[in-house]
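Standup notes
- DV: blocked on the single-chain target, sequence here:
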Amino acid sequence: MGIITEVGPGVTLLKQGDRIVLPFNVADGRCQNCEEGKTAFCTGVNPGFAGGAYGYVAMGPYQGGQAQYLRVPFADFNSLLLPSGTEHEADFALLADIFPTGWHGLELSGFQPGESVAVFGAGPVGLMAAYSAVLRGASNVFVVDQVKERLDQAVKIGCTPINFRESDPVEQIIKKNGGMVDRAVDAVGYQAIGKEGDKEQPNVVLDQLIMVTRPTGGLGIPGLYVPSDPGAPDAQSGKGQILISFGKLFEKGLKLGTGQCNVKAYNRYLRDLIISGRAKPSFVVTHELGLDDAPMAYDKFDKRIEGFSKVLLHPNGPLN
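- DV (later): unblocked, structure below
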């Protein structure tokens, strides 16, 4: 997110001085997937791979977005114009990734207003999925995590906190909800851990989603899973082959959706929710720092310490 300082000859819809926000993924707007709105899986920006992104392994030659200046490919297609000025700065910044990704997780689950939802993971994406469920009229929203500060944030937006360290989160949710939930969202991914300790257990959340969701319900899985994991607990998981209760999934007739977020499918509408005052996703932001503080912030975020849950970086210093 930032202000345009220069435009190339191929840019016709933007000008110097425009305030814009960009999806974390890069798309050309020309391939079949882009034409169908599935911009996270553009086949034109990263040959041999479905999808491109800034500064992400195997997702193209595009330099990372956490910098003082950024070169934007296919700028007319990828840029979302924002009102001029500095209003809603923290809210708009979240349109690049976590607000649309949280919304996407809920969408993948097949959610309908009035349904109950369980969100596993209260990091930034999980909180945005829970917040999206609240905005869209969920009857009950349960948020599962182990970090007190994150669960406290879930409470502030009207959700029921579930600490998986205390007891089986599936049993806790079913008891509090009076039965299984309609939809469940995995905002954790392959680095999930179980109640017993801190060892990676990549199938644990997927199985919990299957067990906590009612027959014919839906699962949304925006949490990251990878085809190769050098730090996996076993050889099979290391190759991205994760053992789950597929028999129970089949027996219950559950539907599931997964994959990276097609940010452009949502960001324009979420921007307008912010402008109208109906959404303020920046409640999740815990720190705003300069670029020099990024290594420290990443370390504390990774360790889940000192309340570092969502950090915004200002590469060019404080806003004027």
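- Follow-up: The two ends are 15 Å apart (CA to CA).
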